Amino acid sequence: MKYFGLLVMCMVLTVTSYGQSLDQEKLNNYFDALVNAEKMMGAVMMVQDGDILYQYAFGYADMESEIKNVIDTEFRIGSISKMFTAVLILRAMENGLLDLDATIDAYFPEVENAAQISIRHLLQHRSGIRSFTEGGQYLTWYTTPKTRSELYDILVNQGSEFTPNARANYSNSNYVLLTWLLEDIYGKDYSELLQEQITGPLGLKSTRIGGKIDSSAKQAKSYVMHVDWTLSEETDMSVPLGAGAIISNMKDLTIFIHALFDGQLIQSSSLENMMTTQDNFGLGMLRIPFQEYVSYGHTGGIDGFRSVLSYFPEEKLAVAFASNGADYDTNLAPVAMLSAYFGQDFSIPEFNQENLPESELERLLGDYASEIFPLEISLCLEGGKLIGRATGQPSFPLTYEGDYLFSFSPASLTLQFSPDSDTMILKQGGMTFEFNKK
Predict the structure, then answer these.
(1) What phi and psi values does residue 258 have, to the nearest 5 degrees?
(2) What CA–CA distance (Å, rounded) separates 345 from 10?
(3) What are the C-alpha distances in Å from 198 to residues 19, 98, 172, 207?
(4) Are 40 and 328 within 8 A, CB to CB?
(5) Other residues' Cβ atoms within 10 Å of the Cβ of residue 287
(6) From CA 411, how far away is CA 429, in angstroms rounded?
(7) Among 118, 311, 351, 424, which is 20 to 30 Å from 291 by CA?
(8) Is the pLDDT of residue 29 over 50?
(9) Residue 346's CB: how many other CB atoms inside 10 A?
């Protein structure tokens, strides 16, 4: 459910007919290499104008029961759910049930600045309402069921971080409020509206609000890498609602986004509304660039799941990706798929298995603090592997890259140690922070 940034695809697009000669074997080898190195598990699909160009499933849906992922395995898709919620809101607008520029104080008067926040602001993350998923406190309760009243109190107490429409900042609170707004307008549960207006008409049999994961019903569990793959905790789906509670499979996702762009779900003017961005956000939709070309869609992240759904209008190409375990930058997998589609070269990854002797790793252990970084980072050893943990955050395994440099690919983070001076340099997102061991 957390927003992990726009997927930037840095290849050159040339001719739109390249997909016909797509190197499927090389793509299969790419994903097999990730599985064999214990770097990723999941499923992918590319569909052009209704024709499946490529599909592949890799790794396990349930490692404990040795159930493998298959192409119709269902995954938690996290914030891709927001696209479905936005479609429902726009359909309600088209039917005269709401005005996007109406403020939300009639529905949620206790929310700070409610009289200044419009429905459009919620859709476009311009409300200023702080995301209830921020901060370490969320990690203490996200696996337990919440009633509407309980979750509303949490959301209200989080407050706002800026004046409505002053800027944009991604907030899951916006789409939880939109979920309740839909339920109040129609007098029906969100899950019922989803089935009546989207999944039923499109025949999406694997797309719905999730519950407790059942791997015997082709639902994937999710995992995080520590020393080995470790089963993730499961978010209770009463928490993310229309912000991130939907499950789906690759085929359903590509059908959904094709139908959206083919005018089967909303009017062309509403689709233009979704695609029009301000500060990188449309209405439940993101611009996902690939060099000078642009696709539209959304990314998702919930528990150990990561996902992407995007559509290139000119090529009529839908790309769906879901991972239920990754110790690798998940952005790179869709990039490899699109490189294959457009006839661009891509490499099958090779992974460094080298590690420092345990005696050298022990020199790095301890608590590190920075004068300009708000969190401390603690380092410990588990099974001979260096594990990091920022204050109030989940732990993360570190891969040795050589010369006392370690990385955590899923977050594009590196740690460069100087053990003789007890210092560490953290780099992430173009920023650099110096830490000293306490």
Answers:
(1) -65, -45
(2) 12
(3) 29, 19, 22, 9
(4) yes
(5) 16
(6) 9
(7) 351
(8) yes
(9) 17
Q: Could you tell me the sign of the dihedral formed by the alpha carbons of 134, 139, 143, 147, in that order?
A: negative
Q: Summarize pLDDT for 207-239 with one digit per residue, the tens.
A: 999 999 999 999 999 999 887 899 999 999 999
Distances in whole angstroms, Cα of residue 60 to Cα of each of 121, 212, 402: 40, 18, 30
Cα dihedral 397→230→171→101 (10° resolution): 140
Q: What's at 101, amino acid-wise?
A: D
CA dist 376 to 196, 320, 393, Å? 48, 36, 10
Query: Is-contact 162 128, C-beta < 8 A?
Result: yes
d(CA 58, CA 71): 9
**Residue 150: count of CB within 10 angstroms of its CB:** 14
**Contact yes or no for 223/113 (Cβ under 8 A):** no
- Angle at which helix 24-36 crosses helix 332-341, to 10 degrees, equals 160
Could you give the C-alpha distances from 325 to 28, 59, 217, 375, 418, in angstroms and in order? 18, 9, 19, 26, 31
User: In the block, which residue shows the tokens 């104008």?
Assistant: 49
> 412 exposed, middle or buried (CB, 10 Å; 0-12, 13-18, 19+)?
middle
Sequence-separated (6 or more) residues with CB below 8 Å from residue 42: 57, 58, 59, 69, 75, 220, 321, 322, 323, 324, 325, 326, 333
DSSP 144: S
How many C-beta atoms surround the C-beta of residue 248 within 10 A?
A: 27
Question: Two tokens at 10?
Answer: 């840095």
The answer to whether residues 27 and 336 touch, using CB atoms and an 8 Å cutoff, is yes
Question: pTM for this one?
Answer: 0.86
The structure tokens listed for 261 are: 């762009």
Q: What is the DSSP letter of 139?
A: G
Q: Out of 134-143, 297-306, 314-323, which region has the weakest mean confidence (pLDDT)?
A: 134-143
Q: What is the 3-state secondary structure (H, E, C) of 297-313?
A: EEEEEECCEEEEEEEEC
Give the orientation angle of helix 172-186 with respect to helix 81-94, to 10 degrees: 40
**Residue 384: per-residue pLDDT:** 82
